[in-house]
Amino acid sequence: MNEYDDIINLPHFHDPTKPYMSLRDRAAQFASYKSLVGYEKMIEEKTEELLELD
Question: If we measure between CA atoms, which residue out of 23, 19, 39 comes closest to residue 31?
């Protein structure tokens, strides 16, 4: 038996006193999120290093 078997199929709770957030507002929360800041620059630098070794 899984430790979450007793709650896994319960319906999702929604507080009836609060309205649902619009999809537009929900999407806006993550619009500016960028998990890999600087990743592209790091790849470019590493590529240049490797090309210099040839």
Answer: 23
Q: How far apart are alpha carbons 18 and 35 in whole angstroms?
A: 30
Sign of CA dihedral 7, 9, 10, 16: positive
41-53 per-position pLDDT tens digit: 899 999 999 888 7
Domain ranges of the chain: 1-54
| CA 41 – CA 28 distance, rounded (Å) | 26
pTM of the model: 0.35
Contacts of residue 41, defined as CB under 8 A and 6 or more positions apart, other chains included, come to none
> For residue 40, which of 32, 31, 48, 28 has the smallest C-alpha distance?
48
